[in-house]
Amino acid sequence: MGVEERRQQLIGVALDLFSRRSPDEVSIDEIASAAGISRPLVYHYFPGKLSLYEAALKRASEDLASRFAEPREGPLGARLHRVMGRFFDFVDEHGPGFSALMRGGPAVGSTTTNALVDSVRQAAFDQILSHLGVSEASPRLELVVRSWISLAESTALIWLDGRRIPRAELEKQLVQDFAALAAVSAAYDEGMAAVLRGALREEPAESPFGELVGRLIALAS
Amino acid sequence: MGVEERRQQLIGVALDLFSRRSPDEVSIDEIASAAGISRPLVYHYFPGKLSLYEAALKRASEDLASRFAEPREGPLGARLHRVMGRFFDFVDEHGPGFSALMRGGPAVGSTTTNALVDSVRQAAFDQILSHLGVSEASPRLELVVRSWISLAESTALIWLDGRRIPRAELEKQLVQDFAALAAVSAAYDEGMAAVLRGALREEPAESPFGELVGRLIALAS
């Protein structure tokens, strides 16, 4: 194998191990053994476990960000719903590693890992604005989108802790949470209200957004 | 000064510095100078910066958790609204330190600091359940409460980054966010719906919850 090919193989092996257990439980010896090479050879490609972890996280980050891409066609609720499905696929595939990373701590909290997590959040933010047809977000719209992204993260973390709620329900609920948070914020911001009205206008009644509105009315009356 | 008195004074000085700047920018020299003692004397009381940081964070955590306490009287929305005011007071007083801690990273991500942050989240969770009159949360109620707590954290972090939205608006919005997330979840869980109906029944029309319902109806129609 060439140098780059070997590096890529090692990253793949490491990502698999770092996904299945908390990174501080995975040793270089284990990675070497899973890759079928010697421990010194691992160190030939990566100076230490942290640099290998960061390389694996970079691959995972690019993978996750690529799953946010969604054609700009059809109702917004259905688009977001499809993205949520792919997000939970990712969370499911990388469960223990995702939990360890997002809960922070010395094993995973380097400046590089934080920057990678932030880059994925930024990719999600950019995608959502683009689907909303907004090029520059007002402070209130930015707050809704960024705080909803953190809500999606914490919902996924809570799901991983015992999986006591079916993920399909959470995927739909997060779409409805987005509409609900936007609706709360719309009271304070006419631009936000316009974005929301535009989005709701194109929603079929049987979509996640449409369903939510019906339910809220029933609850309120 | 006695040993314990000196320790407590040092913790207070350190907390003040760690609150006003990111902890990794604060040196032991600076803490010694602010406390009016020598650097070696600081090390006599605390083996290193991390242990002093952890002691300061412990004091801040207990302070924040104590602000969640609220008499069990009157409408729930107003109670949560008062707690949100005290939460933003705390965030305001400890801004840079709060941001650095919640954004994670090597300077602040020890096992002890993570446990302290989790203890504050747990105190918030316990308070909310107690005000809802629920002794054991269903998985869906637990999800709503815990994910709303993370929403409050991220809202505060986004507020600190430029303070572009008045905090009074965010304090009220978070109360409404709680009701909105509960309303979304109520569709999936009869117990959750019962909790929400009970809470809304006692809300005056001019409360944050009452206002929200009126706005949602207006938006939906």
From TrEMBL, chains A, B:
The keyword DNA-binding applies. Keywords: DNA-binding, Transcription, Transcription regulation. The keyword Transcription regulation applies. Residues 4-64 form the HTH tetR-type domain. This is TetR/AcrR family transcriptional regulator. GO terms for molecular function: DNA-binding transcription factor activity; transcription cis-regulatory region binding. InterPro entries: DesT_TetR_C, DNA-bd_HTH_TetR-type_CS, Homeodomain-like_sf, HTH-type_TetR-like_transc_reg, HTH_TetR. Residues 27-46 bind DNA.
